[in-house]
Amino acid sequence: MPGEGGGEPSCHPGDVTSAESADVRWVYAFVDRPRERLASAGAFWTAVTGTRLSEPRGDHGEFATLLTDGTDPCVKLQGVDGGDGGAHLDLCAEDVPGLVERARALGARPVAPHDDWAVLASPGGQLFCAVPWLGEAVRPPVVAGSRLDQVCLDVPPSAYDAEVAFWSGLLPGWTSRAGSRPEFHVVAPPAGLPVRLLLQRLDAERPASAHLDLACGADVAGVRARHERLGAVLVAEQPHWTVMRDPTGGTYCLTGRDPETGGLPAAS
C-alpha cells in the first residue's frame, strides 16, 4: 500500500505550522485486486480512467500508479493475496508521523510501520495508509463522462458511529455531513483534492470492506455500456447507482453524481 511512485510533484510544500503539516494534502484511491489478475486489472482500470500504467514496484511487482498527462495521478493499483480485492485510501501528508499520531489518538491501530509511511486500521477495521505528500496538486480531468472520485467504506452497523467519528476527526478541513440516505455519511475534501469518502452502513454484521465509486452524472447508462465493452458486467441496478463487476471479479459502482463537483444532480 505504499504511496511511492506517484509521479513528478507539481509544486513543493510551503511553510506551514506543525499541526497543518499533519493535514492531508492529497489522496489516492487504491484498486486492490488479486495479484494473479493484476495485468487484467491494470488494462481495465487504465482504459476506464484514461491513464497509463507506471512501471511496477514492490518486492513482487505488486504496485503501480495510473499515470496521467499534465496532471497529478490519484489512483493506484495493488496486487493482493486472497479474495477478489477491494479498495483503500492513501492519505498524503507532509508530516506522516503526525498524521499517524492523530489517527492513533482517534482509535486507529498500527498494522505495518515503515521508514516513511505506515499501514493503519481504523476503529472499524478499514485499512488505510499514511504516506508522504510529494507536492501533488493538479486533479485529473473527467474522462469519457466519468471520474473515479470516491472510496466507499462498507461499515457493519456496530462500527458505523465510531467510523463516522473517526474519519470526521482525522480529516480537519473536510466537510462531514449526512448523506442522501439514512445509511450514508459523506466526508468531502476541500476543493482541489481528487478523492472523497463515503461511509455506508450495512444491513448486517460482516467484516469492513471498501469499494470504488465513479461519478457519471446523467450518463450512467452510457458509461456502463463503455465499461461492458471493456469486460465489466452488471451486478445490480439501483435508482441512483449501478453495481458493476470488473474483469478481475472486483465490484464497484457507477453513480449519478456530478463528475465535476461530486454532488448529486440537484446540488451540483
Percent strand:
25-35%
Number of continuous helical runs: 5
Low-confidence stretches: 1-17
Sketch the topology as an H/E string, one letter per element.
Answer: HEHEEEEHEEEEHEEEEHEEE
Keyword list:
alpha+beta, 268 residues
What's a concise summary of this model?
With 268 residues, the protein is an alpha+beta fold.
What does this structure look like?
Strand 14 (233-237) and strand 15 form a beta hairpin. The protein has 268 residues and is of the alpha+beta class. The chain is globular and about 45 Å long. The strands form two sheets. Strands 2-3-4-1-5-8-7-6 form an eight-stranded mixed β-sheet, with helices on one face. Mean pLDDT is 91; it is low at 1-17. Helix content is 18%, strand content 34%. It has helices at 18-21, 38-49, 96-105, 160-170, 220-229, and strands at 26-34, 52-53, 63-67, 75-80, 86-93, 109-113, 118-121, 127-132, 147-155, 175-178, 184-188, 196-201, 209-215, 233-237, 241-245, 251-255.
How does the SSE layout of this entry go?
Elements: H1 18-21, E1 26-34, H2 38-49, E2 52-53, E3 63-67, E4 75-80, E5 86-93, H3 96-105, E6 109-113, E7 118-121, E8 127-132, E9 147-155, H4 160-170, E10 175-178, E11 184-188, E12 196-201, E13 209-215, H5 220-229, E14 233-237, E15 241-245, E16 251-255
Parallel strand pairs: 1-4, 5-8, 9-12, 13-16
Antiparallel strand pairs: 1-5, 2-3, 3-4, 6-7, 7-8, 9-13, 10-11, 11-12, 14-15, 15-16
